[in-house]
Amino acid sequence: MFSCYSSSSEEEEEETPDQTHSTGTPLKTEEEDDSPARKKPRVQEQAVDKRVSNRLPLPGCLLTMFPDEVDSQSEESGLHGGRIRSFKHEDGNWSTYVYLPYHPEEEFRLLLEELLSTARARGVDLNPQEEFHLSLSQTVVLRHHWIQPFTQSLKAGFVHCRRFVCSAGKLKTYCNAEGTRTFLGMEVTSGHPQLLDLAKAVDGTMTEFNLDTFYKDPSFHVSLAWCVGDKRKQMKEGIQDLQSLVDDHEEGPFLLMLDCVEVFCKTGNKTFRFPLER
User: Fold this and answer.
1) What is the pLDDT of residues 128-153, one digit of tens each?
2) Is 221 a catalytic residue?
3) How many CB atoms lie within 10 A of CB 142?
4) Which of 225, 6, 205, 211 is nearest to 104 (CA)?
């Protein structure tokens, strides 16, 4: 890779002094000469310095492979709207959670815009979720070599779970354990027993791998929007106004409907699907 080393002939010229003075008096050999200025290590050092200075610079693509270490919390906060990771990222650790997806229709999106606008008018600036789902587990950390047995265990646990439909229509505020994010969610109003069966199956797998199980008395919900910090007090003050938008929808009270036909598990950048029995 480094093709600019001095040639061997150049090194020999630098490291091999003349054998006589101009007077003809023989010089001392290296072993006999006790003058520091004449010692070979000094000559070698000069030769090495010359070789280093003549090296070609490293390509930029190699330099960018090893960037200076930055504060991960600051970096993530800037990239993700102020959100902070609940646990530090480490190579080989995969953030994992189990959920039921919700695919919104136009009616839902229009209602969500109204909810965000009303919350903003009351001083709470909410960000809409990028995707919508109902969680069946807490977010846990999997080691990479656990992924296959973990997903196989989930599949086995869902064998006896059947498809169903659940609905949500009651607005509620939530805050994560660290108090760094507040959520506006829509809580489930029907289908709760079936959801408990799914969460119980997921808990069986979590226990098998010594991971955190779901909440003892879960409030199944679909998160609609979020903001940074613990804003539960501000949200509580205006939740009735937001609920009125849901209840007084122009076509009657709005119900968010989930057709629960398959369960998903997202781990890192991989997504696994588990169809439920008919």
Assistant:
1) 999 999 999 999 999 999 999 999 99
2) yes
3) 20
4) 225
